[in-house]
From TrEMBL:
Organism: Subtercola boreus
InterPro entries named in the record: His_Pase_superF_clade-1, His_PPase_superfam, PG/BPGM_mutase_AS, PGM_Phosphatase
Protein origin, superkingdom: Bacteria
Protein's name according to its UniProt entry: Histidine phosphatase family protein
Record-linked PROSITE patterns: PG_MUTASE
Length: 244
């Protein structure tokens, strides 16, 4: 019997008001913009011909709306809404302008906020150190640390792997949808693909796929076809992956 192939499609939610206004958006929420709604509609067409067997989504409003659009061609599927897939919790920084947090954090390490290369340097060992710096800098003390985020990621991965195991044990191929957020996907990917990293600037409704075959997981490049980046619209302050 040949090995089955499993594909886990990781999607960032559609563009939101806070994305456009460059405000920190973790557990707080803001509505999808008109372009965000068009991105979600494009996402529905993207997944229409893909034989999805399961869907997982953060339970925040922006990811729920994105997931509903992505599943437009799959009325038989009901997504599992997971608090574990929520964005990093920025605590007292929630809703604040992006630079108010990121500029001093970058400068403390000798880097410049807005430089893609510097984000790569800042997270060369993974996102955990950055998460802990955010938590340490939060005057309210409500921001999550890396241990809390990683505990959630392990919970999410366990749920995804339970479905994945059922698919692969049947000897058939399968596709799973996971809708989450730009920063938390950076925490999730290394648990699915050892050594895997998502580049900064992950676009709204960008899709990256983890393909598992023969026990080996491979991460694809980001497919930005649903991001509608050719449409006129405000440029997101880099690193865009941290805009929620």
């Amino acid at each position: 019997m040949t090995d089955s192939t499993l594909r886990i499609h990781l999607v960032r939610h559609g563009e939101t008001l806070f994305n456009v206004r460059h405000q920190l958006q973790g557990w707080c929420d803001s509505p999808l913009t008109p372009r965000g709604l068009r991105q979600v509609a494009a996402l529905g067409e993207f997944f229409r011909g893909i034989p999805l067997v399961a869907a997982f989504s953060s339970d925040l409003t922006r990811t729920r709306a994105t997931t509903a659009g992505a599943l437009a061609g799959h009325p038989h599927l009901t997504a599992e809404w997971m608090p574990a897939l929520r964005e990093w919790n920025f605590g007292g920084w929630e809703g604040q302008p992006n630079p108010s947090l990121w500029t001093p954090l970058f400068e403390a390490s000798g880097y410049v906020y807005g430089n893609r290369g510097h984000w790569d340097e800042l997270t060369v060992e993974g996102p955990d150190a950055v998460i802990d710096q955010v938590a340490a800098s939060d005057p309210s003390g409500m921001a999550e640390d890396a241990a809390a985020v990683n505990a959630r990621m392990r919970e999410a991965v366990a749920a995804i792997e339970a479905v994945a195991g059922a698919v692969t044990s049947s000897g058939t191929d399968g596709d799973i949808l996971v809708v989450a957020h730009g920063a938390v996907l950076q925490s999730l990917v290394p648990l699915l693909v050892p050594g895997g990293r998502i580049a900064p600037g992950y676009p709204n409704c960008g899709v990256t796929t983890v393909t598992v075959s023969g026990g080996v997981a491979v991460l694809s490049e980001v497919d930005a076809s649903c991001a509608l980046l050719d449409e006129p619209g405000p440029e997101l302050v880099l690193p865009g992956a941290l805009a929620g």
